[in-house]
Amino acid sequence: MTAWSGPMVDAHQHFWEPARGRNPWLAPGAAIPFRYGDYAAIKRPYLPADYRRDAAGHDVVETVYVETEWDPADGIGETRYAAALQAEHGWPNAIVAQAWLHHDDAAEQLARQAAVPLVRSIRHKPGGDGRTPGLMSDPGWRRGYAALARHGLHFDLQAPWQAFAEAEALARDFPETLIVLNHAGLPADRSEAGLRGWREAMARLSDHANLRVKISGLGQRGRPWRAEDNRAILLETVSLFGAARCMIASNFPVDSLCGSLDTIFAGFKAIAADLPQAEQAWLFRDTARAVYRTGGAA
């Protein structure tokens, strides 16, 4: 079979300028617990020109900007920042915005975000680890979540697979809202038992038609990004959900801590090369276009 060489949509990437002081976790001296360990190397400006340079050799035609844990008191400010980048540089082509669904003003936040033409989805990391319930079980948070459908917004869910019982309830109770699972459910534990638990949790989640998956963010702490380490994750996810419900993404510049963008994209293409071209088209372009309405699908 032949590896994908056509146009790509990067379904999950970030731009930022830490010197503006809008991302507390990127401030000088800040050090939050981070799954890749020391992240000082990404405390630098990352703008469309940087991304284009990193993506040279891959035909990325559209990107999806995902919120960057901007100052939570000014979520709409981040959205306007991303929209201004699009007006100047042509990227991003869709925005996953920030909103704190358990706050008293959640309805107002969602209305303001939905009014920005590029906004397609909302991300707010709800926590939960399978032992302690996260916000997905909180009645106030769920009231905010219920308002997504009124604005035609999706929900980008970043949570570890151990919290998927809560995610299943969310998918079941709000079938009209599309959930986009970030980073393939964070399969950080690559032991045999860890991968078995991840696979079983993903299989249960795949039963819900309102789920889509981003295959991204698969770096491992202290290890360089290698296709052979991530082959089973990609192929198992596609087997469970089908290519038309999956999309490839870079998670750049965060995943630059693990490998170059060329290494990651070339690795994903090599892994997917044995799939039919129609399935590769869904993975690298069409699912993201359908979900985030980028480019010609907007």
UniProtKB/TrEMBL annotation:
Q: Which Gene3D superfamilies match?
A: Metal-dependent hydrolases
Q: Which PANTHER family match?
A: AMIDOHYDROLASE, BLL3371 PROTEIN
Superkingdom of source: Bacteria
What is the official name of this protein in its record?
Answer: Thioesterase
Q: Which organism is it from?
A: Teichococcus deserti
Which family is it part of? Belongs to the metallo-dependent hydrolases superfamily.
Pfam families found in the cross-reference section: Amidohydro_2
GO terms, molecular function: hydrolase activity
| Span of domain Amidohydrolase-related | 9-293
